[in-house]
Each structure stands twice: as C-alpha cells, then as structure tokens.
Amino acid sequence: MKDAIRHLDRRLAAFRPLAHGARPPRGWLRAVRDALGMTTTQLARRLGVSQPRIVMLEQSEVSGSITLQTLQRAAEALGCRVVYALVPERPLADVVRQRAEAVADRQVAAVRHTMRLEGQGVDDKRAAGALRRRAVEQLLQRPARLWDEA
After folding, report:
1. Most buried residue, 69, 77, 84, 109, by most Cβ within 10 Å?
2. What span, in angstroms and rounded, lies between the C-alpha atoms of 142 and 125?
3. CB of 15 within 8 A of CB of 87?
C-alpha cells in the first residue's frame, strides 16, 4: 500500500503546479479556438454539429456541466488532448498519516478515559506516546479502516 501511495504521489506531483492555474474566463475550448483563429462554424463542421451547439459546448465548459466525453471530442477537433487528473492538495502519504494520527488520538483518548473511570489511569506521557505510535502504525497497515468514520 505504501508503495502504491508513493508511486501515485510521484505521478501526480507533475500536475500540482497546474492545479492552481486558473481556467481562462471563457473556457479552454474558446481560448484554443480563438488562438487558432477558428470560428464556431468551422469547429462545428469539424465536429459534425451545428454552430449553436458549439456555443452551447463552450458555455457548458465554463459552467462546469460539460461531460468528459464531449470535452474530449471537442479537444480532438481542435488538435488537443484532454488531460484529466485528481490532484491532491497535499501528498497522499501525508493525508493517510494525518488521518491515522487523528483516528489513533481518538482511540487512545477513549482507552485512557475508560482506564481513568476504572481507577487504572496512567499519566505516563511516554507510555501514552508509545500507545499512540503503535495505534498509528497498526492503522497504517490497514488504511481502509481509516475512512470508516466521518
């Protein structure tokens, strides 16, 4: 699992700078079409649709309602490729570790609370830290368990 996360993090790292780039105000389809000097009528012919349909496509891209399949077809007609990726805000390994630590903190707090109620409370910070580290490592061994709670 760790290798899969590291591998995916490496692949997605190249996209991270692009994730913060803004889409042109009138959309990529319009920006590329304008840069090529192509009219909506000419693009419509290339796609085999009507000219008003191109206007609708460009508007649907801006509104976010265009489908990937439609975007791909339009991009191909413009001599482009659609590159689709989910780009994490931070490395996935960090997300998984942070989640494991949060879940472990809740588990350790529950155990410590129960022990105090039973008169067995221990205030040894080193022991609590070791218990937390062990809980984190166990959770990282089975990361699917990390996402059971909201």
Report:
1. 77
2. 26
3. yes
Q: Which residues contact 11 (CB under 8 A, 6 or more apart)?
A: none
Rounded Cα distance between 26 and 89, Å, is 25
Quick one: 41 and 103 in the same domain?
A: no
Kindly report, residue by residue over 45-70, the tens digit of the pLDDT: 999 999 999 999 999 999 999 999 99
Residue 13's domain spans which residues?
A: 2-77
Contact between 92 and 8 under an 8 Å Cβ cutoff? The reply is yes
Provide the CATH number for the domain around residue 29: 1.10.260
DSSP annotation of 121: -
How far out from the chain centre does Cα 111 lie? 34
Q: Are 112 and 88 in contact (CB under 8 A)?
A: no
